[in-house]
Design brief:
single chain, alpha/beta, Rossmann fold, seven-stranded mixed beta sheet, 9 helices, about 35% helix, about 20% strand, globular
Length: about 210
């Protein structure tokens, strides 16, 4: 939790409480289903919460924006971002029902009213969004092919609508077909912890 306060010092009391409660909520659900590895549970705030919030260091979403989290699993990056941006609407999508049920309960117990959940494959999602979010769900060419239909033509933010994906490692082959459309930012420029040394956020504009 100290990491969240370190990098996001302007959180209000409600947000601080919501972030503080995440550990207990995820620990409880992790006893029922394998949401995250037991090793990662001990480093929940670094490897999951702060990692999710790294998108907010790249872009601040304007009120009224609509975001789709594809393959959200246990609710990352959607739930931490929904806490940080209460005036932004999030739709969290995953094809695995038990993970959606867990994430939905965590959001409910966190008092989040700006999050919706859908048990669905991304191929079948028909809604329009300002940004599509993803955390190491699938290669960018596949994500682009599936989700470009979901990007709205109405612009609400400083950056044009597109895909924001949290990735790691060497992405040169994966992004070779996108040219200047893909912008890769090292998360090490935002966070000093070793975990982020090889982590990146990829922005793919349209």
């Amino acid at each position: 939790m100290e990491l969240i306060i370190k990098y996001f010092p302007d959180l209000n009391s409600v947000q601080l409480s919501q972030f503080q409660n995440l550990y207990e909520l995820y620990a409880g659900w992790n006893q029922k289903i394998n949401l995250i590895s037991r090793k990662d549970l001990d480093r929940l705030y670094e490897r999951h919460v702060l990692h999710s919030l790294s998108i907010a260091r790249f872009i601040r979403f304007n009120a009224g924006s609509r975001l789709l989290d594809v393959g959200c699993g246990g609710g990352f990056p959607g739930i931490p971002l929904a806490i940080l941006f209460p005036e932004v609407e999030f739709v969290l999508l995953d094809s695995i029902a038990k993970k959606i049920h867990a994430a939905e309960d965590i959001a409910l117990q966190s008092g989040l009213s700006n999050v919706q959940f859908r048990i669905e494959r991304a191929e079948n999602e028909k809604g329009l969004y300002d940004f599509v979010l993803s955390r190491a769900v699938m290669p960018m060419p596949e994500l682009y092919k599936i989700c470009r239909k979901n990007l709205s033509k109405i612009q609400r933010n400083a950056l044009p609508n597109g895909i924001l994906a949290l990735k790691g490692g060497d992405l040169s082959a994966e992004l070779s077909g996108f040219g200047k459309k893909a912008l890769v930012t090292d998360l090490s420029q935002y966070f000093e912890e070793e975990f982020f040394a090889t982590k990146k956020v990829v922005y793919l504009s349209f």
